[in-house]
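thread: overnight batch results

M.L. [08:02]
morning all. the overnight job finished for the chain we discussed friday. pasting input first so we're all looking at the same thing
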Amino acid sequence: LGYQGGTVFYNAFLPEVAPVDRRGAVSGLGDGLGYVGALLAMGIVLPYLRGTQEGVVSQSMAPVFLFVAAFALLFSLPTFLLVRDRMPPASRGGVSITGALSRQWATLRHLRRYGNTFRFLLTYLLYTDAVTTMSLFVTIYARSRNVSMEEIVLIFLLSQITAAPGTLFMGRLADRIGAKPTIAILIGLWLVLLGYGIFAHTFTDFLIIGLMAGVGVGALTTVSRAMMTMVSPPAHQAEFFGFFAVAGRASAVLGPPLFGAISSLTGDARYALPALMALLVAALFLLRGVEVKRLHRRVPSAR
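M.L. [08:03]
and the structure it wrote out:
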C-alpha cells in the first residue's frame, strides 16, 4: 500500500521538477537511477544470502527486509528535505480527505469529458498487460525450453544492466521526437521480442530477449509517465495519475489468465505469445487516436 500509493505522487510530481521539453529525460533519469539502486542493493545483499546455510533462507530474509527499508529511506531523504511541493491556490487553506474523495468521484463520473486521456489510459492498460504477462511467465516459458534456473538468474541480472541506459536513451528520444512516437517504437520492439520468443529455444535466444526486454520494460514506464503529463488536464493531473496507477495494476487481469488458458489448452506456452501480440497491436491502434497537445516550456518552481 505504501509503495503503490507513493508511486501515484511520485509520477504526478514530474511536471513540478521538469520543464515540458525535458520530461522524458528526467523521467528516464529517475528510472535509470532506480535500476542502478536496485543493482547496488542486490550487490550488497547477495553475499549475505550466499553465506546463509541451505534450508534457513526464510529465517535469513528478515535482515534483508530491514536493509531494503533503510536503503529506500536513505535515498528518499534528499527529496523530502530539499524538494518543495508547489501547492495549488485552492489547497493553501488546508486539505480535506472528504473533499479529495469527492473531487476524485466527480472526476470519475465526468470521465467522458476527458476522452483523450481515457483513450491513453486504455492504451496503457493494453500494452502494459502484454508486458506484465510476459514478465510474469518468462521464467516458466524459459524453463519449458530447457533453460536452467542459473541461466535465467544471469539473464535477469544482465537485463537490469541494459535497463538503466535504455531508460535514459528512450527518455531523451521522447523529448526529441515526442512521447507518442517513442511509445509506438517500444510497442514495436515488444512485438519483435514476442515474435522472436515463439521460436526461442536456447540460452542465447533468451539472453538476447532479456537484454532487449530490459530496455523495453523500463523505457515504457518512463515514456508513459511523460506522456501522461501531456494528455491529462493540468488541474487534475494527480487524480489522473491515480487512474494511471490503477490501469497499471489492472493490467494483470486479462493477460495472465489468457496466457495460462492458452498454454493449458495447447500444452505449449509459445502458442500464448500471439495473444499477447494481439494486445500490443490493439494498443498500437488505439494510440494512433490519442492527441498530444503541444505544451509551452515552463521552468519548474519546485526546488
